[in-house]
Amino acid sequence: MAKKSAVEKNNRRRKLVDHYAQKRAELNAIVHDKSASPEERFNATMKLAELPRNSSKTRVRNRCNVTGRPRAYYRKLGMSRIALRELGLAGDVPGLVKSSW
After folding, report:
1. Contact by Cβ (8 Å): 88, 95
2. Is the pTM of this model over 0.70?
3. Is residue 53 helix, strand or coil?
4. At what angle do helices 38-50 and 4-32 cross, to 10 degrees?
5. Residue extents of the structural domains in the chain
6. Does 1.10.10.10 match the CATH number of domain 1-61?
7. What is d(CA 47, CA 23) in angstroms, rounded to the nearest whole number?
8. Please, which residues have CB within 8 angstroms of residue 35's CB and are 6 or more apart in sequence?
9. What is the pLDDT of residues 32-59, one digit of tens each?
Protein backbone atom coordinates (compact mmCIF):
# COMPACT_ATOMS: atom_id res chain seq x y z
CA MET A 1 0.00 0.00 0.00
CA ALA A 2 1.33 3.42 -0.95
CA LYS A 3 1.69 6.23 1.53
CA LYS A 4 -1.55 8.12 2.01
CA SER A 5 0.24 11.42 1.59
CA ALA A 6 1.52 10.43 -1.88
CA VAL A 7 -1.94 9.35 -3.00
CA GLU A 8 -3.54 12.54 -1.64
CA LYS A 9 -0.88 14.73 -3.27
CA ASN A 10 -1.63 13.06 -6.58
CA ASN A 11 -5.38 13.63 -6.08
CA ARG A 12 -4.75 17.32 -5.41
CA ARG A 13 -2.75 17.50 -8.63
CA ARG A 14 -5.64 15.92 -10.53
CA LYS A 15 -8.02 18.57 -9.18
CA LEU A 16 -5.63 21.37 -10.17
CA VAL A 17 -5.27 19.93 -13.67
CA ASP A 18 -9.06 19.88 -14.07
CA HIS A 19 -9.40 23.41 -12.68
CA TYR A 20 -6.80 25.00 -14.98
CA ALA A 21 -7.30 22.82 -18.09
CA GLN A 22 -9.37 25.38 -20.01
CA LYS A 23 -7.06 28.32 -19.27
CA ARG A 24 -3.96 26.27 -20.04
CA ALA A 25 -5.44 25.11 -23.37
CA GLU A 26 -6.28 28.69 -24.40
CA LEU A 27 -2.78 29.94 -23.56
CA ASN A 28 -1.15 27.00 -25.35
CA ALA A 29 -3.24 27.75 -28.44
CA ILE A 30 -1.93 31.32 -28.47
CA VAL A 31 1.67 30.17 -27.92
CA HIS A 32 1.52 27.70 -30.81
CA ASP A 33 -0.36 30.06 -33.16
CA LYS A 34 2.18 31.13 -35.80
CA SER A 35 -0.04 33.98 -37.03
CA ALA A 36 -0.08 35.70 -33.60
CA SER A 37 2.38 38.50 -32.97
CA PRO A 38 5.59 37.69 -31.07
CA GLU A 39 4.54 39.97 -28.19
CA GLU A 40 1.23 38.15 -27.86
CA ARG A 41 2.94 34.78 -27.87
CA PHE A 42 5.50 35.95 -25.32
CA ASN A 43 2.77 37.29 -23.01
CA ALA A 44 0.89 34.01 -23.29
CA THR A 45 4.09 32.14 -22.40
CA MET A 46 4.60 34.33 -19.34
CA LYS A 47 0.99 33.80 -18.20
CA LEU A 48 1.44 30.07 -18.72
CA ALA A 49 4.52 30.16 -16.50
CA GLU A 50 2.52 31.93 -13.77
CA LEU A 51 0.07 29.03 -13.50
CA PRO A 52 0.76 26.51 -10.72
CA ARG A 53 3.23 23.81 -11.71
CA ASN A 54 0.96 21.10 -10.39
CA SER A 55 -1.75 22.18 -12.83
CA SER A 56 0.27 20.60 -15.63
CA LYS A 57 -1.07 17.29 -16.89
CA THR A 58 2.37 15.68 -16.96
CA ARG A 59 2.82 16.03 -13.19
CA VAL A 60 -0.03 13.62 -12.47
CA ARG A 61 1.18 10.09 -11.75
CA ASN A 62 -0.90 7.07 -12.75
CA ARG A 63 -1.59 5.10 -9.58
CA CYS A 64 -3.43 1.88 -8.81
CA ASN A 65 -7.00 2.53 -7.68
CA VAL A 66 -6.81 -0.36 -5.23
CA THR A 67 -3.40 0.04 -3.59
CA GLY A 68 -2.04 3.39 -4.80
CA ARG A 69 1.05 1.70 -6.27
CA PRO A 70 2.68 3.93 -8.90
CA ARG A 71 4.49 1.28 -10.94
CA ALA A 72 3.31 -1.54 -13.21
CA TYR A 73 0.04 0.32 -13.81
CA TYR A 74 -2.41 -0.97 -16.42
CA ARG A 75 -4.30 2.01 -17.88
CA LYS A 76 -7.12 -0.09 -19.25
CA LEU A 77 -7.88 -1.57 -15.83
CA GLY A 78 -6.75 1.30 -13.59
CA MET A 79 -4.76 -0.96 -11.31
CA SER A 80 -1.32 -2.42 -10.84
CA ARG A 81 -0.25 -5.90 -11.87
CA ILE A 82 -0.10 -7.05 -8.24
CA ALA A 83 -3.64 -5.90 -7.44
CA LEU A 84 -4.85 -7.44 -10.70
CA ARG A 85 -3.29 -10.77 -9.80
CA GLU A 86 -4.76 -10.79 -6.30
CA LEU A 87 -8.26 -9.88 -7.53
CA GLY A 88 -7.95 -12.37 -10.39
CA LEU A 89 -7.01 -15.22 -8.07
CA ALA A 90 -9.92 -14.29 -5.82
CA GLY A 91 -12.25 -14.51 -8.84
CA ASP A 92 -13.24 -10.83 -8.74
CA VAL A 93 -12.15 -10.02 -12.31
CA PRO A 94 -14.54 -11.57 -14.85
CA GLY A 95 -12.87 -13.41 -17.70
CA LEU A 96 -9.47 -13.57 -16.07
CA VAL A 97 -8.05 -17.03 -15.58
CA LYS A 98 -4.69 -18.14 -14.28
CA SER A 99 -2.56 -19.57 -17.01
CA SER A 100 -0.13 -22.44 -16.65
CA TRP A 101 1.81 -24.48 -19.19
Report:
1. no
2. yes
3. helix
4. 170
5. 1-61, 65-94
6. no
7. 10
8. none
9. 999 989 999 999 999 999 999 999 999 9
